[in-house]
Every structure is written in C-alpha cells, then in structure tokens.
Amino acid sequence: MTRMNEGAEYRVVEKLIAKGWHISFAESCTGGMLPARIVNVADASKVIGESVVTYSNEAKIKYAGVKAETIDNYNVVSEEVAAEMARGRALAAGSEVGASTTGYAGPSGGATQTLPDGSTIDIPMGTVCFGFYIDGKVTTCTKHYEGMSRNEVRQAATDFVLETLCDML
C-alpha cells in the first residue's frame, strides 16, 4: 500500500502489479525520466519492460515503430507520432502499457509544419505530445508548457504522464 507522500510512480507500479501488467516507455523530450521515476519504486522489476530514449527521428522509426510518413505528414511533435511511439514500443516489448513523449522542451525550438493539404500550423516551444497505449487502446493529448525552462518542461511532462497513468489504470 502506498503512503500519501509517495509520488505517482508508486501508484502506477501498484496498479500495474494488481493487474499483472508491464509498462514500456518511448521518450524523446523527457530523455529517460519516466523509467527513472518507475525504478524509484522497490517493486519496479515486477512491471518495467523495455524502454528507450528515441531523441532522433531515426530512433523513433527503428525502436518505437514510427512510420517515416507519419513524421513527414504530421511533424515529429504530434499526437500521431506519440501514438505510434507508445503502441510501437509496447508491442515490441510485449507490454500491456506503453507511454510516450515527444516535444520541444526548449530553450529554443518549435516549428512550423506544412500539412499535406498545404496549410501550416505553428508548434511552439514548450509543446509536448503524449501517447498512452493501454491493453490495445491508444489515447493521445498535447500540452503547452509556456514560460517554463527546459528542465521544468521535462519535469512537468514526466509528472503529467505518471498522473495520467494513475487515472487511466
């Protein structure tokens, strides 16, 4: 049983153990912070699967099952890429749960993406897209962390994933 002062990672591990499930992560902007938080928990070895930092587009394709066309059509920082990262890593690792992050943490960055129909969208610094694969179902979302430093964005994104997993599991 978790104590009140323990972080979301304890609740995630507890819920995964109760279901007999495993989790894998494919991360870009958070750079390994998610599995690092999970291994804070003594029982992490019962639930943690393979996790990868896929900072480059090539790594996302090779290790997380992202299609090059998805990156070309939607931008590397998109819910479509986050969905493929979460699903691809979970399936490759044989995990029931996968989570992913892809974003522009800063201090500079952001992009303008030209869509297949010729329209453009601006993706500002501080944008993070998330993918959650849970027992065959994929959910995505995007958050914009304005006015935060690079490491504050990374920490906020990590906290968001763990809190969201607590709710979803």
> pLDDT below 50 for ≥5 consecutive residues: which ranges?
none
Shape: globular
Count, helices: 6
Q: Assign the CATH class.
A: Alpha Beta
Instruction: Return the structural class.
Output: alpha/beta
Give the helices and strands as they follow along the chain.
HEHEHHHEEEEEH
User: Mind summarizing the main beta sheet?
Assistant: 5 strands, mixed
Structure in words:
This protein has 169 residues and is α/β, with parallel strands linked by helices. It has a single domain (8-168), classed as Maf protein (Alpha-Beta Complex), CATH 3.90.950. Helix content is 40%, strand content 22%. It has six helices and seven strands, in the order αβαβαααβββββα. It has helices spanning 8-19, 33-38, 57-64, 68-74, 79-93, 150-168, and strands at residues 23-27, 52-53, 97-103, 111-114, 120-123, 127-134, 137-144. Strands 2-1-3-6-7 form a five-stranded mixed sheet, sandwiched between helices. Strand 1 (23-27), helix 2 and strand 2 (52-53) form a beta-alpha-beta unit. Helix 1 packs parallel to helix 6 (150-168). The chain is globular.
